[in-house]
Amino acid sequence: MKNFTSFADAGDYKTLLQQALEIKANPFGYQHIGRNKTVGLIFFNPSLRTRLSSVKAAYNLGAQAWVLNAGADSWTLEMADGAVMNGGTQEHIKEAIAVMSQYCDVLGVRTFPTLKDREADYSEEVFNKILKYATVPVVSLESATLHPLQSFADLITVAETKEKERVKVVLTWAPHVRALPQCVPNSFCDWFSEVDWVDFVITHPEGCELDPKFTKGARIEYDQKKALEGADFVQAKNWSSYQDYGQVISNDPSWMLTPEHIAGTNDAKFLHCLPVRRNVEVSDAILDSPNSLVIQEAGNRVFSMQTVLHELLK
Amino acid sequence: MKNFTSFADAGDYKTLLQQALEIKANPFGYQHIGRNKTVGLIFFNPSLRTRLSSVKAAYNLGAQAWVLNAGADSWTLEMADGAVMNGGTQEHIKEAIAVMSQYCDVLGVRTFPTLKDREADYSEEVFNKILKYATVPVVSLESATLHPLQSFADLITVAETKEKERVKVVLTWAPHVRALPQCVPNSFCDWFSEVDWVDFVITHPEGCELDPKFTKGARIEYDQKKALEGADFVQAKNWSSYQDYGQVISNDPSWMLTPEHIAGTNDAKFLHCLPVRRNVEVSDAILDSPNSLVIQEAGNRVFSMQTVLHELLK
Amino acid sequence: MKNFTSFADAGDYKTLLQQALEIKANPFGYQHIGRNKTVGLIFFNPSLRTRLSSVKAAYNLGAQAWVLNAGADSWTLEMADGAVMNGGTQEHIKEAIAVMSQYCDVLGVRTFPTLKDREADYSEEVFNKILKYATVPVVSLESATLHPLQSFADLITVAETKEKERVKVVLTWAPHVRALPQCVPNSFCDWFSEVDWVDFVITHPEGCELDPKFTKGARIEYDQKKALEGADFVQAKNWSSYQDYGQVISNDPSWMLTPEHIAGTNDAKFLHCLPVRRNVEVSDAILDSPNSLVIQEAGNRVFSMQTVLHELLK
């Protein structure tokens, strides 16, 4: 593993998943790997789970960590090549990333999409600059289009919870009050469409289609009820439109997941990457039911990160 | 000890005090307790002493630490049960606390009172939610009504400084320009009214009475001069009104502690939790005198926290 | 070494430089020095390099670190002696620094000049208060007039890169869009005018003269081209006026360093403390050339700090 930015970087996902389960069973057993290593974490946007689970993952591995709130703690970054920097930006990302690479052994970076310029977002313009200028391995803590540590944690959660060989996993769109990135659903598709013991189904209102690059031909079922039939795991998530880029196409409250929606499933376990808007995306009854895995799922963020750090530092 | 939120949680205060003095004498001698442990610290409000002394306490104990500025670093939290989260709040405290519990072994949390809704504040509505949703031990870094780590540090300071068996300790109200919480004086009363080698007296202008739940029948003397007579230790602190909740009842500058006020004491040592408004609450002459213990007192915040962490992690 | 605030504090610079090169060659070889030690870092202003390189230096040395954004994380500080604190400031620097000294073994502090009150800035009013109230060794992370960790890193960079015994080093003023402090050029002069294997030349537009206290009689050449002739190393940096204090005297774009400017040098290596305004201070062609040492120079910030911490903690 050179960097970790998508499913493709994971290499053989079965090996990586096995490694994650071993690390979870013995979280402090790999500290020779992290000794004298420092994990740098840069956030261009707020974070709770990613920030803290990444720090904990570094600590478990016997490594140190630092966190930088880009912007608030340091300087405003210029992204454009060839810019004449006589305006508001104070430092070019070229220097910033190359410099920070010297203060750590792995660099985790969170960027967010513009949700305005689809081409810029989907070409991962910013993240690719980071990859270009970094001189240490880079971990995506969420980029403009993907959130691979989340999807890997989801995979760990499903794998350690499932009670039969093959399982049906459904990704369902959910309503929200704001226009959200497509990173989490894109990434969920990027991973789960490849898992050979998963029957993967995506359901959302028409017009909410994700980039086919990530859905990879997975079954899309516009009838939510039909999609959820017999499901073993349901991941709910809102996203804004990929077609009509960044727009909120639907607010349809009937898509909010409630016990009624779950009725036709195989007593499905419930997933959500968090933060979740209670009683907007998902009802309290679902989130507070024993079938909800959301806390365990967030807990597995430590082990997805720790496994990735282990691979990159070993 | 299960959590640490008040004097009652301290168990036998004599044993805890003894432990604190031993830890202070040998701060790095207990690192087997902190090994592979992480202390999570969440601040809903600014902090200097609590933030840094807690981090140092974790380090002394051989543990790691992370600090989260709730709000600035992460998401806006919803506190209400059953809320339909279609407004400004982005994550429910139920998830936030349960998730963060998985990224640490002890969770320290600072909340502040509203100073508007006495019932909400004095029922510790927010802090009790945190206790309810946490799955690891919780340490109050100051709640709506109490600041037990401060009072424990005060007790350590008095215990290690006193030169005779019994001492007279006076808590005196002091003027301020803003409406402040009652946490520190409540907590000081909560602790010092229980110490069997302390004669405890409270003095303040009429109308500044604290909640009797915390003063526990301690002597209240409205004449500051009389109260200070023969005092061995004086703790000065402003607080807003408990009766006329959150209001500034008095600005009376004659309550500002000066050498004149101290004249009738037994060469009293001076305490203040800091930050202190110089020449408003207390004069320079008091703060800069050799009898001032305020720096030592702040230093003992490391050892009150380290002792509590030691109890919770051992 | 008692504190580290200027070249004078460095003691014998040759010994310190030698130590830095040894530490760089074996960065984890001195962890007995940092064991159970904590480095406190206080920033009154944004920082990227200083913040992160200082944390990394502490980690390399086996020490722990904490970072405080003064103001944002904690309380507004009062600087004036004898102040009646009934306004916006919440804590006096006297308490703040004495308290923080108890939570660490070395205190790093960054302050910035006012650029309005030259006497206050050049008497290091704020930094001297910090030195006065601190009870542990203090490291300047940049003060009102100096940035010694940067200059020491520059010296390491030149020393490890130079290919002959004596080298010509030129500090050249560069244009900028804002009024910047004089710290970096002052400090560069403070150090390089003392190095016995350096021929040191300063070049800038007339009116941009630095404080002679720091230039110490070094050669000043107003003709940039002439100054650069035969140079082995060129450090570019903008600064505002010392004479007409804090004012921008020149924006002359002809001072921007380009390959043309470098033509007469001895294939000079290029230095800049960063952040740099690309194509305003220096052209892309210079920054992106193989002769640019700016990234290596920033990397050496780890080792200048680590060497200083080693001296102060040993």
From TrEMBL, chains A, B, C:
<feature type="binding site">
    <location>
        <position position="142"/>
    </location>
    <ligand>
        <name>N(2)-succinyl-L-ornithine</name>
    </ligand>
</feature>
<comment type="pathway">
    <text>Amino-acid biosynthesis; L-arginine biosynthesis.</text>
</comment>
<dbReference type="Pfam" id="PF02729">
    <property type="entry name" value="OTCace_N"/>
</dbReference>
<protein>
    <recommendedName>
        <fullName>N-succinylornithine carbamoyltransferase</fullName>
        <ecNumber>2.1.3.11</ecNumber>
    </recommendedName>
</protein>
<dbReference type="InterPro" id="IPR036901">
    <property type="entry name" value="Asp/Orn_carbamoylTrfase_sf"/>
</dbReference>
<feature type="binding site">
    <location>
        <position position="277"/>
    </location>
    <ligand>
        <name>N(2)-succinyl-L-ornithine</name>
    </ligand>
</feature>
<comment type="subunit">
    <text>Homotrimer.</text>
</comment>
<dbReference type="InterPro" id="IPR006130">
    <property type="entry name" value="Asp/Orn_carbamoylTrfase"/>
</dbReference>
<dbReference type="InterPro" id="IPR043696">
    <property type="entry name" value="ArgF'-like"/>
</dbReference>
<dbReference type="Pfam" id="PF00185">
    <property type="entry name" value="OTCace"/>
</dbReference>
<feature type="binding site" description="in other chain">
    <location>
        <position position="301"/>
    </location>
    <ligand>
        <name>carbamoyl phosphate</name>
    </ligand>
</feature>
<keyword id="KW-0808">Transferase</keyword>
<feature type="domain" description="Aspartate/ornithine carbamoyltransferase Asp/Orn-binding">
    <location>
        <begin position="199"/>
        <end position="309"/>
    </location>
</feature>
<dbReference type="GO" id="GO:0004585">
    <property type="term" value="F:ornithine carbamoyltransferase activity"/>
</dbReference>
<comment type="similarity">
    <text>Belongs to the aspartate/ornithine carbamoyltransferase superfamily. SOTCase family.</text>
</comment>
<dbReference type="GO" id="GO:0016597">
    <property type="term" value="F:amino acid binding"/>
</dbReference>
<comment type="function">
    <text>Catalyzes the transfer of the carbamoyl group from carbamoyl phosphate to the delta-amino group of N(2)-succinyl-L-ornithine to produce N(2)-succinyl-L-citrulline. Is essential for arginine biosynthesis.</text>
</comment>
<feature type="binding site" description="in other chain">
    <location>
        <position position="110"/>
    </location>
    <ligand>
        <name>carbamoyl phosphate</name>
    </ligand>
</feature>
<feature type="binding site" description="in other chain">
    <location>
        <begin position="273"/>
        <end position="274"/>
    </location>
    <ligand>
        <name>carbamoyl phosphate</name>
    </ligand>
</feature>
<feature type="binding site">
    <location>
        <position position="176"/>
    </location>
    <ligand>
        <name>N(2)-succinyl-L-ornithine</name>
    </ligand>
</feature>
<dbReference type="InterPro" id="IPR006131">
    <property type="entry name" value="Asp_carbamoyltransf_Asp/Orn-bd"/>
</dbReference>
<feature type="binding site" description="in other chain">
    <location>
        <begin position="147"/>
        <end position="150"/>
    </location>
    <ligand>
        <name>carbamoyl phosphate</name>
    </ligand>
</feature>
<keyword id="KW-0055">Arginine biosynthesis</keyword>
<feature type="binding site">
    <location>
        <position position="237"/>
    </location>
    <ligand>
        <name>N(2)-succinyl-L-ornithine</name>
    </ligand>
</feature>
<keyword id="KW-0028">Amino-acid biosynthesis</keyword>
<dbReference type="GO" id="GO:0019240">
    <property type="term" value="P:citrulline biosynthetic process"/>
</dbReference>
<dbReference type="InterPro" id="IPR006132">
    <property type="entry name" value="Asp/Orn_carbamoyltranf_P-bd"/>
</dbReference>
<feature type="binding site" description="in other chain">
    <location>
        <begin position="47"/>
        <end position="50"/>
    </location>
    <ligand>
        <name>carbamoyl phosphate</name>
    </ligand>
</feature>
<feature type="domain" description="Aspartate/ornithine carbamoyltransferase carbamoyl-P binding">
    <location>
        <begin position="4"/>
        <end position="160"/>
    </location>
</feature>
<dbReference type="GO" id="GO:0042450">
    <property type="term" value="P:L-arginine biosynthetic process via ornithine"/>
</dbReference>
<feature type="binding site">
    <location>
        <position position="75"/>
    </location>
    <ligand>
        <name>carbamoyl phosphate</name>
    </ligand>
</feature>
